[in-house]
Amino acid sequence: MDIAAITGAWQGIKAAKELVGGLIDAKADAEAKNRIYEAQAKLGNVQDALFSMREEMFALQDENKTLRAQIAEFGAWDAKAKEYELTTTQGGAVVYRFKGQPEHYACPSCFQSKQIHILQTTRKISGHFMCTGCDKAFPVNAAEPLRTPRLY
Fold first, then answer.
1. Structural contact between residues 136 and 107, judged by C-beta atoms closer than 8 angstroms
2. How confident is the model at residue 51 (pLDDT cuts 50, 70, 90)?
3. Which pLDDT value is given to residue 22?
4. In 3, 63, 83, 123, which residue has its Cα 20 to 30 A from 141's Cα atom?
5. Taking the model in full, what pTM does it have?
6. How confident is the model over 57-91, as pLDDT tens digits?
7. Helix/strand/coil (H, E, C) string of the chain?
């Protein structure tokens, strides 16, 4: 049932209620007036029920819209997450590696929170990379051995 059908029914019952109310003003005996009042009350109850149904339908439509958006969001995340694989780097860090180009790594902590933060090199001999989201360091590259200076 859509909103147009409910609105049409509600307006039809409203018109019928007004017509029945108009009949009361006409000359009629007491028993007929009582029946008209009773019919008018029942029409009012039906009108109230239709109004409640319309409000419930609006709430369900809003919930449906929200759930559809959540499903789309989950689908988008799943597609993005499939582009990465969990791997162990040369330095021993367990991170997510992008399967495509350019090759890069993503923070596993942020990945679990459905966020992708690309690890950035610190350009130090330790081989550590930093997460731009949570500031954690990961030993991605193997540490370079210290070179002893030569004296000539």
1. yes
2. confident
3. 66
4. 83
5. 0.52
6. 999 999 999 999 888 888 888 889 899 999 999 88
7. CCHHHHHHHHHHHHHHHHHHHHHHHCCCCHHHHHHHHHHHHHHHHHHHHHHHHHHHHHHHHHHHHHHHHHHHHHHHHHHHHCCEEEEECCCCCEEEEECCCCCCEECHHHHHCCCCCEEEECCCCCCEEEECCCCCEEECCCCCCCCCCCCC
